[in-house]
Amino acid sequence: MKFLVYGATKGRGDGLGRTVALSLLKRGHRVQGLCRNAEKAAVEKDFPLEAIDLQNEVGQNRIKQLIREMDPDVIWSACGSGYGEPLWTLAQEAIKEMIEANVHNNIIFCKTCAPSCLDGGPHLILTGSVAGALEGTGAAVYAGTKGFLTPFVRGQRAEYARQGHNAKISLLLLPSVRLTGFELIADAIEFVGRQSRAIELLIN
Prior knowledge:
Elements: E1 2-6, H1 16-26, E2 30-35, H2 38-43, E3 49-51, H3 57-70, E4 74-77, H4 92-113, E5 123-129, H5 140-147, H6 149-161, E6 169-174, H7 177-180, H8 182-193, E7 200-202
Parallel strand pairs: 1-2, 1-4, 2-3, 4-5, 5-6, 6-7
Helix pairs in contact: 1-8, 3-4, 4-5
């Protein structure tokens, strides 16, 4: 299978995208990575990694071009941001970061990629969290921004269905990455990517 992975680097968190990308490579899959940091892209040696700015039209057009050239089976957004502090202690910058990464970034990414994921196209997978689905499993702002993803992907599928399309836009809801393990997440990405219709997979 061919995977286009957005967020295929190690940032402030656990390096979910890069570690799972390496696991997919070891399983014999082809991986093309995308990230925002040109310095990280320049030093990546294990798989092709390209820096793009999703916030501007040039970056969005480059992703569309890659989808046409690569014809991936799966487009996976591994990006996200989370802070565990309660709302009353959160810095304003942390709140902005979570809204940007977990909400706005996913909107732009889907607007860019989803039209290619209709009917026989690739499978688009967003990375959510059990904190957005199960009560009491995450801090308020993190849970709220991740909880946005469920109605967001369902709404997209409904919009395309009204136009007669099968939109393969799925949601993977993860608990703590360290408790889940990267290999299980790679299993889940493979499983979702092979489905002919969109699903929501909660790992708990």
